[in-house]
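Format notes (please read before filing issues)

Several people have asked whether sequences and structure tokens are stored in separate files. They are not. Every record keeps both together, in the order shown below: the sequence lines, then the token lines. Line labels are part of the format and must not be stripped during preprocessing.
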Amino acid sequence: MRYASIDIGTNTLRLLIADRGENGKLKPVAHKRVITRLGGNFSEERGIDLVAAQRSFAALDDFKKTIVEKNADGILAVATSVVRRSRNGAWFVSEVYKRSGIEIRVIDGQEEARLSLLGVLSVLNVSAKKILVFDIGGGSTEFIAVDGNERIGDTPLVAAWSMEMGVVHLTEKYLTADPPSGDDIKGLETEIEGVLTGLKSQMENSGVSGYSAGGGAALVATAGTITTLAALDMDMQVYDRDRINNYVLTKKKIAVLYKKLLGMSLAERSSVLSLEKGREDLIIPGSAITLLVMDMFGFDLVVVSDAGLLEGNIIDRLKIKGVIG
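Then the structure lines:
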């Protein structure tokens, strides 16, 4: 049983084609990712920018060719923040179907968190029962409270929060100078701190507690920012998912990387081999979010996961079909 999973994000479009392995784990057949910045130049009045949409249509056409070549049995495509927020999101979904035959399911933040968690848990090796998972996206950041002693539905998810704090929005709003100025960074970090303060209030109001280093919890991060930071820390010449999964980053190392990146121009960041092309500007707000999350919840360590929504999307379908438990 072979599925193609597509994640249409605000910044990156990703494809995973995978088989069900003998041990119930996914066996990847093909991976593709294209930074199309679908949320670039987004506005509440206009919605998705036409040029950004065209970049994404082209990427999805290419994905469809790969899916056909690999003989996938089904396509599971989901769209997240920018499509669900956009006034012309339905048009985008319709256009994709007309052009490629790919049916897109627009999911809310709670479903995005649930599927991401399924993916993270499929590769995670953490002994702590309580885990705070965060997923930094282009248009939003999801936070997921996990408790291994509880089970709600098909995951030990206790609660999830989708915060309107994405790296594309933050980049376009604050990074006006090259390299970023002190005022740029001050504005960026102030907004992030405000969102995280709001998150803590929501957690407290929901009766969710203990998700800090002091409470014995572990911190886990997924998505492009954290995997890029891990690759930079390892000076990785060729990206290796097996080395990325469960890699542990310290706050001190992330702070050193952040300071170094802040002192570089966009062109200088573009020349760094371990930095994914198209992420040269986005890595600044992504790093800031990571550090401020660690500060806010008292963590000195964060565990990295390359797996997330893509994998969770397939695992969820296999669970529905009763193929895996």
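For reference, the curators noted about this record: The chain has a mean pLDDT of 93. The longest helix spans residues 182-205.
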